[in-house]
Design brief:
- By secondary structure, the chain is of the alpha+beta class.
- Helix content is 27%, strand content 28%.
- The protein is built from five helices and nine strands; from the N terminus they run H-H-H-H-H-E-E-E-E-E-E-E-E-E.
- It has helices at 3-18, 23-30, 34-42, 49-59, 63-68; strands spanning 86-88, 95-98, 109-115, 131-138, 140-145, 148-152, 157-161, 166-171, 176-183.
- It has a six-stranded antiparallel β-sheet, with no helix packed on it.
- It starts with a helix and ends with a strand.
- The model has no long low-confidence stretch (mean pLDDT 89).
- This is Cupin domain-containing protein.
Length: 184
């Protein structure tokens, strides 16, 4: 796994231990098996954003702190310039950029997501608590939510309960970029 995943894994373990949680307790509270939780803490597998959101809520820390090791400091307004934000390069299918990483106590996670052509050809799904809003900026996106599959073009959007398994795929031979607002 990448150095970034290993650093996140180290923070997961440290936060759990500081909080006096066992692996079994933390796994149950975040809705994963003990084996899956242990794999996240060891850094041997990619850590889904859905798990990181649950983990952050459980331990009362900002997701930015878990991802970067630094706490966000802004509480009135956070400006993120074009092509800036914090890269979250930990998912094989998607490239995430957190657009409000430096705002403390966020109620939503605004993410710029890029799906490259050919990624997630099998439409592997994930799910997490809360809701999600996706707005396509560039390219074409195939979005599957539950049993429904749809194609979105620039300017199209979808809002859904993200507990339902969902997956994204760039179609048409070009990358797709979309704004994802994840509401835990």
């Amino acid at each position: 796994m990448s150095d970034q995943v290993m650093q996140i894994a180290t923070r997961l373990k440290a936060l759990r231990e500081i909080s006096d949680y066992t692996v079994a307790e933390a796994a149950a509270a975040t809705g994963v098996s003990e084996a899956e939780y242990s794999a996240y803490e060891s850094g041997s597998v990619d850590i889904p954003i859905s798990f990181l959101l649950k983990f952050s809520a459980l331990f009362g820390v900002d997701t930015t702190t878990v991802l970067t090791g630094e706490a966000p400091r802004l509480s009135v307004c956070a400006l993120t310039r074009k092509n800036m934000g914090v890269d979250i390069n930990r998912a094989e299918h998607y490239i995430y950029k957190n657009l409000a990483y430096n705002f403390n106590h966020r109620k939503v996670e605004p993410l710029l997501v890029t799906v490259v052509p050919g990624a997630n050809a099998k439409m592997e799904t994930n799910s997490h608590s809360g809701h999600e809003f996706d707005y396509v900026l560039e390219g074409k996106l195939r979005l599957k939510v539950g049993n429904q599959t749809m194609e979105l073009l620039p300017g199209d959007s979808a809002y859904y309960d993200s507990i339902h398994p969902h997956a994204m795929q760039a179609i048409g031979g070009e990358a797709c970029r979309f704004l994802a607002i994840v509401i835990p």
